[in-house]
Amino acid sequence: MRRLLLFCTAAVGLILGAPRASAQAERLGGWTYYGGSKGFTRYSALAQIDADNVKNLKVVWRRPGVDPSLKQKFPDLNPSHYYKATPIMVDGVVYSPNAVGLLEAFNPADGKTIWLQQPFESTMKEASGQSMRGIDSWRSGSDLRLLLVHGRYLYAVNAKDGTIYSDFGDKGRVNLQATGPYTGRFHWTSGPIVVRDVIVVAGSSAANGAGDGGFVKEVSPDNVRGYDVRTGKLSGLGKQLCSHRSNSTRFSLKLRNDLSLRKDEEHQR
Prior knowledge:
The chain has helices at residues 9-14, 22-28, 68-73, 124-127, 248-268, and strands at residues 4-7, 61-64, 88-90, 93-97, 103-106, 113-116, 136-140, 143-150, 153-158, 173-175, 183-187, 193-195, 198-201, 204-206, 224-228, 234-238. It has 269 residues and is of the alpha+beta class. The chain has a domain at 174-269. Strand 3 and strand 4 (93-97) form a beta hairpin.
């Protein structure tokens, strides 16, 4: 049975009118990060829908997990039924990774597609993937970038048309694959988070049997990393705190503190 991504008036109402700052968006009922805010408050101040009228909500439109145009181009594409993305809304447009991890932009009023991120290369390998939990955005003037991880790569996508920035990383993407002992295929289902002008990513490249989910105590050194949002160059590294058990919270806190200190030092110069 084909997996459908369902939206109703409640979901649309929760993400309408998202301004730039997540704190302000939270107060006004916006939804600019997949956790509601970058503090993962998962809260909206909107009060139009309440306990008394929620029973009257009806589905106003539906979208498939993957836009039909991609299925037409790759008939053998087999998206996972485990769809776990939470959309964001910026400037009246909804953005969400689809069931294979590529970005889609659509109209919140009718659910119609505005654009679909194309695979890096027109191959089944590049078109395939898994659903990601979410994305983040970054703005400088009229430049609005959407940041996501698809497979082992970090992408910066132009919010206007879904194209990638060719001067970001290596021809438009950054390879997140780690190398070294106990290293396997890079794997991550969460979304990046932007701290000022730095894209923070984590993930795992542990080989089968290594790390938290396996039977080998050692794990590949997958340090949390920060990349420049404009160029894709590595700009920060959070050192691994444990040799055999990863702790993503401690990793993130350490990297965020390092980045904050670095930025504060720059401002003082």
